[in-house]
Amino acid sequence: MQPIGAVGLDEVSGLTTPIARFLDGNTDMPTPFLVFDLDVVALRYRQLREALPAAKVFYAVKANPAEEVLTALEQLGSSFDVASRGEIERCLRIGIEPERLAYGNTIKKERDVAFAYEVGVRTFTVDAEAELEKVVRQAPGSTVYVRIATDGTGADWPLSRKFGCDMAEAAALIRRAAWAGLEFGASFHVGSQQRDVRAWDRPLADVGALLDQLRSEGLEAAGINLGGGFPSHYVDPVPELGAYGTAIRAALAANLGGFAGEVLVEPGRYLVGDAGVIETEVVLISRRPDNDEARWVYLDIGMFNGLTETLDESIRYRVGTPGDRANQGPVVLAGPSCDSADVLYEKAGYQLPLDLRIGDRVRLLSTGAYTSSYSSVWFNGFEPLRCFFVSSHDQRVVAA
Amino acid sequence: MQPIGAVGLDEVSGLTTPIARFLDGNTDMPTPFLVFDLDVVALRYRQLREALPAAKVFYAVKANPAEEVLTALEQLGSSFDVASRGEIERCLRIGIEPERLAYGNTIKKERDVAFAYEVGVRTFTVDAEAELEKVVRQAPGSTVYVRIATDGTGADWPLSRKFGCDMAEAAALIRRAAWAGLEFGASFHVGSQQRDVRAWDRPLADVGALLDQLRSEGLEAAGINLGGGFPSHYVDPVPELGAYGTAIRAALAANLGGFAGEVLVEPGRYLVGDAGVIETEVVLISRRPDNDEARWVYLDIGMFNGLTETLDESIRYRVGTPGDRANQGPVVLAGPSCDSADVLYEKAGYQLPLDLRIGDRVRLLSTGAYTSSYSSVWFNGFEPLRCFFVSSHDQRVVAA
After folding, report:
1. Three-class secondary structure of residue B36 per DSSP
2. How far is B108 from B85, CA to CA, in rounded Å?
3. Residue B82: how many CB atoms within 10 A of its CB?
4. Is residue A53 part of a domain?
5. Which residues in chain B touch residue A164, judged by CB atoms under 8 angstroms apart?
6. Cβ–Cβ gap B377/A377 under 8 Å
7. Which of A246, A274, A375, B124 is positioned for an S-S bond with A384, CB 3.0–4.6 A?
8. What does the alpha-carbon distance between residue A301 and residue A298 come to, in Å, rounded to a whole number?
9. Are residues A257 and A328 in the same domain?
10. Which of A267, A298, A328 is the last residue of a domain?
11. Are residues B97 and B188 in the same domain?
12. Between chains, do B162 and A342 touch, taking CB under 8 Å as contact?
């Protein structure tokens, strides 16, 4: 295993100029907190539009539901994938038109479907008969996307069997939807932080075959939803976004060449992950029994106040530290709570400078996605992660 | 594997009269929510005092930090184990005297030690040299408990290597503490939801040997902290609390017969777990590809809005449902979010009535501990778990 060394704070990797300026100006601010550069969201949005010009972007609000983020994306022209009534209400409150919302969660209470329809939402996703019937009853004339199961190979955040139906059921659900007067489409998700640009190939072949079959029955799909999966920059290298665009465009041409409907993508992590940096502090460094080699480094942020995605060490953030990076040694990274499960990285192979000290500031890079909204309300008496939003029209360095 | 069947709602198991009355009177209240019976806390407190009359009770605030719970325990005469500055401030705000607080987290910022000392806290726990030095510098004359590592065998919630030092280091830390003018004690934790009443035997033998050694050097301990670990009533049966009392008293007599200092216990789960019931609703029932047998039952509560302890299916709650319990079939239980990791029980072997329907109310019993304060602030746009507190001076049935 390749050891994961600290990233130098003088190497600007992951630190944009507005973030660096904020951190430099707030060295006494109590930690932990997240600084988020809204310009990175704009950059990522443009990159995605360039890579997949035919696709309409539906930002997955759950990745970072801050109003600042939603407003920035609304101004860029994005649409929004929402997971709940709460997310719908927040989007409407800041002025996003309901036609720009897609209710993408396949698990919805019927009264929430009714609410969504009443406020103007017309796009829903389902993967089961009972869920489709809720849409039939409560959202006449809407477009329903039927989600097809994929195996998630190549993705860092696990994709369980929780979502998606097989091809035969998808066809049956679509026939039922069409019969009930709904528009329909097909959707799938290749798994979050997908590092294989070819992961879209097989589901697109399946979708192509499915839509051909339906077309032969006189049923024409209104759209295809390619899901998310586009990566942020963590420890393990990822392909350039352009490579995803090339691969997906090729798979679309090969399998759905004549498709005239809408093509949707649902990026979450990709648009906001690299935009955030968490500033944290070393609370304690100690050695534990039975482990002579690795120091235990306890930070003031952990699994329960923002770093949920370190679960099973799935998402491995880059760590920036002060100190002598020519002399590093193995560490276990843990959170500040009394909970034994609050250990971030024990097996991943992190190394940090041997001269790291208690009280040092440590930065976790590319932490703009799935951090702040996952924070516990008051676990162990720790406050939820505070967030600050910055931006600038200056030239500045952006990670990767 | 024994299948885990549904508990009948007519069997009153886990439902006290005040909780049942609240639920009966609020059948239209939007779910999910937690109903918590404060009388159960009082009952459990008395049971623990009876089982271990010599021990002073320090309630582990993190288990349920609601002010209602803290106030009830304050009136019963409890002291409090706190994990953070936030928990200290909350306890003081509701009028708990600082002498009744022990700062038991072994991972503390030095300025938080200073804060605690300044407001009157005089009891701290450490397990590392650097942590002890913070207490030496900031909390002169206090009592410091040195936490010894245990292996956690027999506990349902995993105990990692995150906490505790070995015996040699404990002795060294205590000598240093005494030399610096601090009082000292020894502490350990056998792991949460500990189902083996003999789990205290070995750490108490170790502590007895340690204190004998220190006594021979002229150092006398001020106290022993037995930690927590006393169980709530989940699916797997647990011994009666009396059996824990008998075993622990025997281990104390055998290893620390002449000990004249204080004995502390830190129950969290035991005092509050059985006091709570979560009311939830079935949002969707479906069958997934590749699994013909088990239905997937999606509830409106999941891993990220209250049921964190289902992580790795560690804590298995009893589930109460309506329907025909003579005809049950296997289910996978999952939460309502778009996150693939939000699956509660897939391997544990739960069975629920075959006639369970979407919209049915389902009750999760003994969910008063480690639920509400673990909820995410706004994950997937879901609100944190709402809580209602009830009590009564009437006679009523209490679980187990």
Report:
1. strand
2. 9
3. 30
4. no
5. 288-289
6. yes
7. A375
8. 8
9. no
10. A267
11. yes
12. yes
Q: What angle do CA A156, A162, A163 make, to 5 degrees?
A: 90
Shared domain check, B280 and B246: no
Tokens representing residue B198 in the block: 């003999």
Residue B280: give its domain's CATH number. 2.40.37.10
Told to judge if A387 belongs to the known catalytic residues of this protein, a careful annotator would answer no
Q: At what angle do helices B129-138 and B167-179 cross, to 10 degrees?
A: 20
Q: Which residues contact A326 (CB under 8 A, 6 or more apart)?
A: none
**Range B176-184 average pLDDT:** 98
Per-residue pLDDT of A338-355, as tens digits, reads 999 999 999 999 999 999
Q: Which domain holds residue B23?
A: 7-36+273-390
Length of chain B: 400
For residues B235 and B310, membership in a common domain is answered with no
- pLDDT tens profile B258-313: 899 999 999 999 999 999 999 999 999 998 876 678 999 999 999 999 999 999 99
Question: Is B49 part of any domain?
Answer: no
d(CA A67, CA A84): 16
Q: Are B237 and B363 in contact (CB under 8 A)?
A: no
pLDDT for residue A392: 82
- Is residue A246 located within the same domain as residue A316? no
8 Å CB contact between A230 and A267: yes
On whether both A159 and A302 belong to a single domain, the answer is no
Indicate whether A50 belongs to any domain.
no
Closest-CA residue in chain A for B287? A128
pLDDT, one tens digit per residue, over A165-192 is 999 999 999 999 999 999 999 999 999 9
A395 occurs within a structural domain: no
Q: In the predicted model, is pLDDT for residue A13 greater than 80?
A: no
Residue B147 near residue B188 (C-beta atoms within 8 A): yes
Which chain B positions have a beta carbon within 8 Å of A372's beta carbon? 377
Domain count, chain A: 2
Tell me the nearest-neighbour CA distance from A394 into chain B, angstroms: 33
Do B123 and B96 share a structural domain? Answer: yes
The amino acid at B196: D
Same structural domain for residues B237 and B151? yes
Among the partner-chain residues A159, A340, A380, the one whose CB lies closest to the CB of B160 is A340
